[in-house]
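Let's practice the habit of predicting before peeking. Look at the sequence and jot down your guess about where helices and strands might fall. Then scroll down.
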Amino acid sequence: MIISDYNKLNITFCGMMGSGKSIIGKKFAKIIDFNFIDTDSLIEKKTGKSINKIFSDSGENYFRELEEIYISKILLKKNYVFALGGGVMNSLNLRNIIKKNSYNIYLEVEKKILSKRLESSKNRPLISNLNIEKKLNELMDKRENFYKEADLTIKNDKKISDTINELKINFQIYD
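Done guessing? Here is the structure:
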């Protein structure tokens, strides 16, 4: 498999909320026979609180501290696929660990499509009760350059199967 060519321990998926990191990551992990971890779900499990509750009780900065603590440790595992939270790439420390240990894939999605995917979401504290498009623009301005540093960028604007097929081609996986 091509990941060994890059001398990386695992694969990470980065991108905006709603870009499909969890769905694509879980399916791809199964295909390559890796374990799968969604980092937001991990934080919820470790704290016993939902992401929304963490944000409302303690704020975004506290949540980012939790990300730093938990994710910096799990990124050292081997043969995992990680769906990273949308803001993980803002952390220089986590970016450095990802760059060293992971083959990082940016799932890029047009803002209009992201906005449509997110309009009925209730579990996204950064966009709750806000103008989604305006907030997405703001977040993309802060994050997109970090996302674009990924080892591979794949458009995830279409069907899940199209994205999975593109990943298979890139990783030279043949059924």
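How did you do? The domain at 2-169 is CATH 3.40.50.300 (Rossmann fold).
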